[in-house]
Amino acid sequence: MTAATDVEGLLHDLAPQVLGILVRRYGEFDACEDAVQEALVAAAFQWPAEGVPANPIGWLVRVASRRWIEQQRSETARRRREEAAAGLDEGEADPGPTRDDTLALVFLCCHPSLTPASQVALTLRAVGGLTTAEIARAFLVPEATVAQRISRAKQRIRESGAEFTMPPPAERHERLGAVLNVLYLIFNEGYAASSGPALQRVELSSEAIRLTRQLRGLLPDDGEVAGLLALMLLTDARRPARVRDDGSLVPLAAQDRALWDGRAIEEGSALISATLAGAPIGPYQLQAAIAAIHDEASSTEDTDWRQILGLYELLGKVAPGPMVTLNRIVALAMVRGPEAGLAELEQAEADPALAGHHRVDAVRAHLLEELGNADAAAEAYRRAARRTLSIPERRYLEERARAATARSG
Amino acid sequence: MKYLLLIYHNPQARQMWESFSEEEKAEGLALYAALNNDLAASGELIVTEALEDPSAASRVSVTDGRTVAGDGPYVETKEHLAGFYLVDVETRERAIEIAGRIPEAAIGGVEVRPILTYSALEM
Fold it and tell me: d(Cα A386, Cα A397) in Å, to the nearest integer?
């Protein structure tokens, strides 16, 4: 007997390798992906009871190939191709998975012709080895929606004529950006959902970390891949402290830092330090560096806000965005005081992406509170609470509004 | 992000629909079919349904643990819910764009409501 969870982990690791071998053998990413999914389901069922075969990849390739051939048989229009395939010896020595196969697979799943939602679903299934049902549970959408997304995504890839090869060097940088964005989306979805009725959601953050680790194994010299992995490790390290047992949120400043995962912080910090020393700078590295400063400080007061401010200023040049603007203002207020922060906040609101955003009200409320203006703070907290779409955030903001009102008494 | 797109009807809308010729009705239904098709293709559609007339509704009340279902709304409301789409999209703008393709949007009968989530990033 082998624990089902061990088998699950093993299958997730082997999935892209098996798919790589199959696509190389038969072409047709679309049909091969279905066949591999069926083989994974069969293994998840058999291996815990019968034990893991001596050559698990060989087993999966054999079963997936059989499924693939069955699929071809059922399509009479493709009879000729079926005969060609049947001629292949199923038992032939596997060429073994190659590094480039898995990489090519990741690039294919994050093909620019797909929407981010489809890229995410396809990557989790084809590269992550998750089942459609698991992905659906993780994103709280019906299984049919995910199945539809995946089948249409594969159809789109087929229509676009994309091939199972590495993108040409000229495109690689941009394509890698899409891959990193997909991994980041998966991580965030998991991290953000660690509150509320989320017990049955598969661990998307761990899955994202595992996939990013795998990608880093394939592209060890890329600074942004390393930066993203460090960012995930340093953020996920705070997970045990960010939600109370009742599901309510604990802001960074109030978190019990003893609960943070020291090993993850150590790994993330070492990784980002080494990376910053060598690679060309990029947004994920900068965010990881900021996370490392937070994680290494013993309290909010001891945090090196000056350095954080500098990093946000750099980030604002490399990859500007509304949340970067807002976080820079928080850091600025820590360095130069709440008045300076409030003044910049007013200017920042001119950006349509921030106008009326609940985070602007939340930051304003916090700064007003610092200034001792409890009435205005309570008002701003209430406005933020009305505007957020997140139930845990709403509860937190309402709580702060009540506390501020009590103080203004 | 998930959004519920609510489609409301009113007596004028119904009169308008009933005054349509068969071709015009078919045209309206074709618009819906095309929308459903596109949303399924993009993977954004979670579910869409049309609702039976409000006269078929039951109003439920629980008193002392007893569940009682009475006949539909007591008062004749000016507007009633006639159908809905639940979509999962990238942005609010996209939800509004989809809502704009629902034929009832032409008479102002479509409402876009964001769904609350249990997700939250660091505050």
Answer: 9
Which range of residues forms the domain containing residue A286?
220-246+253-303
Interface of B with A in 54-113 (CB under 8 A): 88, 90
Test mutation, A393, A394, A400, chain B, max B CBs within 10 A: A393
ipTM > 0.90, yes or no: no
By the 10 Å C-beta count (0-12 exposed, 13-18 middle, 19+ buried), A93 is classed as exposed
Smallest Cβ distance to A145: which of B43, B117, B122?
B43
Does some domain include residue A198?
A: no
Residue A333 lies in a domain: no
Phi, psi of A114 (to 5 degrees): -100, 150
Domain that holds residue B86: 2-50+77-114
Neighbours of A151 (CB within 10 A): 16
**Does residue B72 fall inside a structural domain?**
no
Tell whether B115 is within 8 A of chain A (Cβ). Answer: yes
pLDDT tens-place string over residues A43-89: 999 999 999 999 999 999 999 999 999 888 876 555 565 555 555 54
The count of structural domains within chain A is 2
* Residue B90 covered by a domain: yes
